[in-house]
Amino acid sequence: MTQTPPAGLPTTLGELRAAGYQYRTVKQELRDNLLARMREGKPRFPGIIGYDETVLPEVERALLAGHDMVLLGERGQGKTRVIRSLVSLLDEWTPVIAGSELNEHPLHPISPASRRLVAAEGDALRVAWLHRSMRYGEKLATPDTSVGDLIGDVDPIRVAQGRTLGDPETIHFGLVPRTNRGIFAVNELPDLAERIQVSLLNVLEERDIQIRGYQLRLPLDILLVASANPEDYTNRGRIITPLKDRFGAEIRTHYPLDLELEMDLIRQEAQLVAEVPEHVLEVVARFARAVRESPSVDARSGVSARFGIAAAETVAAAALRRAGLLGEDLPVARVGDTVSVTSTLRGKVEFESGEEGREIEVLAHLLRTAVADTFRARLAGLDLSGFTALVADGQVVETGELVSADELLRQVGTVSGLAKVLERLGLGDAPTRGEAAAGVEFALEGLYLTRRLSKEVTEDGRTVYGR
Q1: Torsion angle, CA of 54/313/402/378, rounded to 10 degrees?
Q2: Cα 139 to the chain's mean position, in Å?
């Protein structure tokens, strides 16, 4: 979306000088705005969860020091999210020479053409305004990335128009110089071919660029940030030593350190199409953490935070599907809806070589463990004899993916202790029928996992407790 500058901003170089504007580098701008937010107590990195005491202080120190940085961590740790959040620390609007493809500051032109323009027009030079959202460039490092993509190359069309090869204006600039006076990010830097990484050396140290032998001195004003997976240093590729040396800060990221942060992250990021009660969300978060910590899973690859987010969305979708098929108005996820996650999300997990063919079995075991742990955490110490009495004398309770909340509640009738269960699960004094059914199913599943009830899954997918 194109941003419209506010009215009243200077439109010429003369007006800009009269208004007292001073040129600041990008790193000075970031430092000043970060310090201002610190002093005012405002959020510095909104939307970043779990890094307040670990990663973000290191990022802030790097910004205050004026360092380019590389974020090092496994997949799905929010490295790109952190990098993109830096844009909010730039000035909302900044002046540029109108028509400059390098976003040059009117008080600090860097290209020969812009210097000539400033000299020729003086205070009448036209000034445009650039929103901070346009001052961010990003490139996913791929094997086919070229120096021309990042830095630039000779434009044959301009040569054909009559310019000589020695004319700097024959150059078509790449992504890095076009992000001058902004933030440029290289995602998965080790995937960039080593000969291409060499092209970034001058950008990081001398802050200039060289194209096909041109000694074109463009003092770029840029913050360069990269992301990398630590395994990439030795497997798919590596960051060449001279380039690593030029980054001022190497910052390690991590997965959420505790269960509550994992749940906060899922709540913030998941796009849920049905209600997912807190205890079901906790099961999903515990499941994601259990998969991440399992010896059957390749720890070097990691288990992305997107795993838990996608799991919560899948569970909500299962509830919505049930509501659509059975005509329920208010879909509510139940613990049985989590079963589908083991098959739909196994592709997100890299298993150890010895686990081939057992992937679903491993995930199903970890899911049962997550449900049992959540049951103990939420309902420990409660008298659940009313639930075990439901299946006394050969009676059964049937539930499952296509069993409606009304049908489940009709089977159980009035259950002694249900109110306490719903209270412990945070479902309130006046739960909906869907929420009550979710509480009943969770209690029954927990009793089965703690070996106080029996369970059987029928061929048509129904779950029968008590047979």
Answers
A1: 20
A2: 16
**Lowest mean pLDDT: which of 53-62, 223-232, 256-265?**
223-232
In this structure, are 205 and 304 located in the same domain?
no
| pLDDT band per the 50, 70, 90 thresholds, residue 168 | low
What's the one-letter identity of residue 110? I
Residues 226 and 372 placed together within one structural domain of the fold: no
SS3 for 194-260 is HHHHHHHHHHHCCCCCCECCECCCCCCCEEEEEEECHHHHCCCCCCCHHHHHHCCEEEECCCCCCHH
What is d(CA 207, CA 196) in angstroms, rounded to the nearest whole number?
16
Reading the block at residue 65, the tokens are: 């020091």
Kindly report the pTM of this predicted structure: 0.86
Tokens 């000779």: give the residue: 154
Q: How confident is the model at residue 234 (pLDDT cuts 50, 70, 90)?
A: very low
What gap in Å lies between CA 355 and CA 366, rounded to an integer? Answer: 14
- CA dihedral angle for residue 380, residue 276, residue 398, residue 330, rounded to 10 degrees: 140
**Phi, psi at residue 120, to the nearest 5°?**
-75, -40
pLDDT-derived band of residue 233, with 50, 70 and 90 as boundaries? very low
> Helix, strand, coil % (nearest 5) of the chain?
50, 15, 40
- Say if 404 falls within a structural domain: yes
Task: Show Cβ contacts of residue 186 under 8 Å, excluding neighbours closer than 6 positions.
Answer: 138, 139, 141, 192, 200, 224, 225, 226, 227
Residue 93: phi and psi, rounded to 5, are: -130, 140
Dist. CA 348–CA 345, nearest whole Å: 6
What tokens appear for 237 in the block? 């590729």
Rounded to an integer, what distance in angstroms lies between the CA atom of residue 267 and that of residue 289? 15
What is the domain range of residue 316?
259-465
* Per-residue model confidence (pLDDT) at position 415: 85
Q: For the segment 201-213, what is each residue's pLDDT rounded down to a tens digit?
A: 878 877 667 666 6
Report the distance separating Cα 279 and Cα 374, nearest Å. Answer: 7
Q: Which of 438, 443, 413 has the alpha carbon at shortest distance from 427?
A: 438
Specify if 6 maps to a domain. Answer: no
Residues 248 and 374 grouped into a single domain: no
In this structure, the answer to whether residues 202 and 278 fall within a common structural domain is no
For the chain, percent of residues with pLDDT exceeding 90? 58
My answer on whether 269 and 386 are in the same domain is yes
